Amino acid sequence: MHVFSDIKSIQEHLAKLHSDFKIGFVPTMGALHQGHLSLINQAQKANDIVVVSIFVNPTQFDNLADLDNYPRTLDTDLELLNKVNCDIVFTPTVSEMYQPNEQKIHFDFDGIEYEMEGKYRVGHFDGVGTIVKKLFEIIKPCNAYFGEKDFQQLQIVKKLVETLKLPIKIVPCAIYREEDGLAMSSRNMRLNKNQRQAAPLIYKTLTSAKEKFGTISVDKLKQWVDTQFANHPFLTLEYFEIASEQSLKPYEVCQENEPFRAFIAVYADDIRLIDNISLGN
Ligand code: PAF
């Protein structure tokens, strides 16, 4: 496994590869878990080599404490990647990826960027777009793999590729869950025992909401979700939304025959957890 931390070295290495080589790319912020490994596994099946990046991107954090507290486990990440036969790892520093005082790019993603995560984490998707664009320009993959846990991010990245006309296929990967249903996330490692025991309520609420969808009004459904978290000792609901998979616009302003998803964001103290579920069959 080759590990590079500067752009020039990884580009020189990639330039030596056969021009027909298919590069699969899995961008991450590290603190790797089984969910990431499933993306890598999917990438390995469809590409000649797989590049994984590990970079905690400061421009996508709207909150400095969240950035500071984001788990960083580079040594164990590298061991894991070595074990699963990853070919190349890119671990740049912030100064390698950004000029001093460089601002994130402001993107127009057709309004998707202002819904849900964009509403609660202002500027988040400009930061994601900025770093994903830079990483794509460095790695130049054929296929790039993104988890559906960050469903809105996945749609944003598809829009980015479409807008910039990049020859990259964005491959969505199913959410990987713990046995009790909690969606795998790097942030889960920050949960204490009580929070961890409580956290499966998030997915449980989503699966029940899926059953209820269509049998009661969306308004009533939202009220029911509120009651699941009301006065909860460890979890606070930030939002629950039913939105179009394509436009990410709320159910209330969409055509009823569109495919919908339920989206949720919950805080356990300062740890923010998100999840979603398809409301189709
Ligand atoms: O999903 C993530 O881990 C990040 O948002 C990404 C795509 C690596 C960009 O920093």
Average pLDDT for all residues:
97
CATH topology description of the largest domain: Rossmann fold
List cofactors, ions and other ligands: pantoate
The number of domains: 2
Low-pLDDT windows of residues: none
Distance between the termini: 41 Å
Structural write-up:
The chain is α/β, with parallel strands linked by helices. The protein has 2 domains: 2-173, HUPs (Rossmann fold, 3-Layer(aba) Sandwich), CATH 3.40.50; 186-278, Pantoate-beta-alanine ligase, C-terminal domain (Pantoate--beta-alanine Ligase, Chain: A,domain 2), CATH 3.30.1300. The protein is 37% helix and 19% strand. Strand 8 (260-268) and strand 9 form a beta hairpin. Helix 7 packs across helix 8 (151-163). The protein is globular, with a radius of gyration of 19 Å. The model has no long low-confidence stretch (mean pLDDT 97). Pantoate (PAF) binds at residues 27-29, 57, 60, 128, 131-132, 150, 153.
What's the quick description here?
The chain has 281 residues and is α/β, with parallel strands linked by helices.
Please write out the topology:
Layout: E1 2-4, H1 7-15, E2 23-28, H2 34-46, E3 49-54, H3 64-69, H4 74-83, E4 88-90, H5 94-97, H6 117-120, H7 124-139, E5 143-147, H8 151-163, E6 169-173, H9 193-198, H10 201-212, H11 218-229, E7 236-244, E8 260-268, E9 271-278
Helix pairs in contact: 7-8
This protein binds pantoate.
